[in-house]
Amino acid sequence: MLIAALNGSGDGGSDKPVAGSAASLDAQDDEKSAKEIAAEEAAEAERLAEEEAAAAAQAETDRLAEEQRIADEAAAAEAAVAEAARLGSVAQQNAYRSAVDYLDFTAFSRSGLARQLEFEGYGAPDAEFAIARLEAEGGVDWNAQAAASAANYLSFTSFSRSGLIDQLMFEGYTAEQAAHGVGTTGL
After folding, report:
1. Which of 78, 91, 157, 161 has the most CB atoms around its CB within 10 Å?
2. What are the pLDDT digits (tens) for 46-98?
3. Which fold has domain 88-140?
């Protein structure tokens, strides 16, 4: 009876509302738990999505960096090949240095320099390479060479204008180069 008095009535029916209240509280606890679980699951899903996005972004950055590295290596290899082609083989490099030395010593026409290099034992392709490299690098001015040759001839013998032009053309200068060279002497 004490229990019944505490519940507010002596009949046994008062247990039902108390039990119903407890069930109601348990349901609310279950609802919060479900809401909390859903929120936690959503937060975990968001975290995983962010991690996946970050991993994908890093993978893309790594891929682009690798592509750039490969492109840089290819460009460096191409530059090395181009530089090797520009410099030529050992024989071509030697022919080039000999051509520079000859031009430092005396004047030559293009064909005269090629003949001189071939006379020294360089093959015609090596001589041509050396002269083409000189021209490409701006290391020779054929008009200036013709002027120097004309001055050299006039320093040890006399020539008429046409005779000196003919002599320079015989040496391998073009008609234009020979006329320019003779023109610089005052003839």
Report:
1. 91
2. 988 898 988 888 988 888 888 888 888 888 777 777 776 677 789 999 999 99
3. Arc Repressor Mutant, subunit A (1.10.10)
Which helix (DSSP H) or strand (DSSP E) does residue 152 occupy? helix 142-156
Provide the pLDDT confidence category of residue 102 given band limits of 50, 70 and 90.
very high
Integer Rg of the chain from CA: 49
Q: Which two tokens stand for residue 92?
A: 């071509």
Whole-number percent of the chain with pLDDT over 90: 50
Neighbours of 150 (CB within 10 A): 28
- Distance, CA of 43 to chain centre: 46
Does the model's pTM come out above 0.85? no
- d(CA 39, CA 159) in angstroms, rounded, equals 107
Rounded distance between C-alpha atoms, residue 140 and residue 105, angstroms:
13
For the chain, which residues make up each domain, given as ranges?
Answer: 33-85, 88-140, 141-187
Q: Which two tokens stand for residue 130?
A: 């050396």
Is residue 133 within 8 Å of 69, Cβ to Cβ?
A: no
Instruction: Kindly tell me if the per-residue pLDDT of 28 is higher than 70.
Output: no
